[in-house]
Amino acid sequence: MLKNQAIRTMGTILITGGAKRIGAQISLHLAKSGYSIAIHYNHSHKEAQNLAKKIRHYKVRCEIFHTDLTNNEEVAALIPAVQKKFSNLQCLVNCASIFENSSLLTENLSDFNRHFSIHLKAPFILSSQFAKHSKRGQIINILDTNIVKNKTAHLSYLLSKKSLANLTSLSAVELAPHIRVNAVAPGLILPPDGKKSEYLERLAKHIPLKRKGEPADIAKAVQFLLENTYITGQTIFVDGGEHLI
Ligand SMILES: NC(=O)c1ccc[n+]([C@@H]2O[C@H](COP(=O)([O-])OP(=O)(O)OC[C@H]3O[C@@H](n4cnc5c(N)ncnc54)[C@H](OP(=O)(O)O)[C@@H]3O)[C@@H](O)[C@H]2O)c1
Predict the structure, then answer these.
(1) 54 lies in which domain range?
(2) Beta strand pairing status for 62-66 and 36-41?
(3) How many independent structural domains does the chain possess?
(4) Is 16 exposed, middle or buried (0-12, 13-18, 19+ CB in 10 A)?
């Protein structure tokens, strides 16, 4: 904790799905570096409140914002709500996600719609709102190392993340020169619901660096993209080399 120091005045970063897991690590890491943090959450109200308390110890501002990203009207209201509280919104990090099994044979349209709402439609609406309201800044989309592969076990998940990768490139071109748009593609970082860390450690034996990564590795990549002002349209794979094989 930084004692006897006034609130710092760097830009504000909005992180969707920022209350838990990788999103929380990004929130904390950027707060430690002096950025103000707008934490978006859906169900994790308590976690968002607790994280906000922790973040304020770094003498930066932090507020929490509830939005169900499957609801278009709620999504469209998020950036204006953040801008009411913060005058200096600098970066939108689209991190919120679901990860569910689906295939063409088992698919029902509601699974498909939920994946595309959260991974593509919400980032599309938020990017558009961000560009209209902020005029300059950065957008960072969190993808998945598997966007370069064609694994079918989570078909709607992967298809929607591949689409978000395309949105990253298209919006990098459309929103230049005042808004940079980049992405981070994590590999084996945190186990999905119902799986333990050993599950990822087993999978990690088959990737070049032979170990799983940490949420902090993702947070550091986000900060790198945020602060390197000559990069746009780039995806950093933070995956121990998994995308290579
Ligand atoms: N975990 C990994 O190893 C890994 C690997 C590859 C890629 N990634 C990517 O990295 C990012 C973070 O991963 P993660 O595992 O930390 O994510 P996660 O735990 O699966 O999800 C992050 C947050 O997304 C929010 N969310 C889900 N549905 C929502 C909805 N309808 N409306 C609003 N928010 C919603 C949830 O917020 P609430 O809890 O508030 O409901 C959740 O805490 C994701 O984009 C993921 O695809 C992760």
Answers:
(1) 12-238
(2) parallel
(3) 1
(4) buried
Does any domain span residue 140? Answer: yes
Smallest CA-to-CA distance from 189 within 157, 167, 156, 221 is with 221
CA 96, 28, 205, 203 torsion-angle sign: negative
244 located within any domain: no
Which among 148, 153, 163, 160 is positioned nearest to 103, based on CA atoms? 153
Residue nearest to atom 36 of ligand 1 (CA): 17
Contact yes or no for 49/75 (Cβ under 8 A): no
Strand partners, 181: 139
Ligand 1 center from residue 47 Cα (angstroms): 14
Burial of residue 140 (number of CB atoms within 10 Å: 0-12, 13-18, 19+): buried
pTM for the predicted model, two decimal places: 0.96
List ligand 1's pocket residues with C-beta within 6 A: 17, 19-23, 41-44, 67-70, 95-99, 118, 142, 144, 186, 188-190
State the pLDDT at residue 71.
97
Count Cβ atoms below 10 Å from residue 184 Cβ, excluding itself. Answer: 28
Q: From start to end of 29-119, where are the E strands?
A: 36-41, 62-66, 89-94
Tens of pLDDT, residue by residue over 88-133, are: 999 999 999 999 988 888 778 989 999 999 999 999 999 999 999 8
Provide the token pair at 109.
Answer: 């349209």
The answer to whether residue 7 is domain-embedded is: no
Q: How many CA atoms lie within 13 A of 163 on its CB side?
A: 17
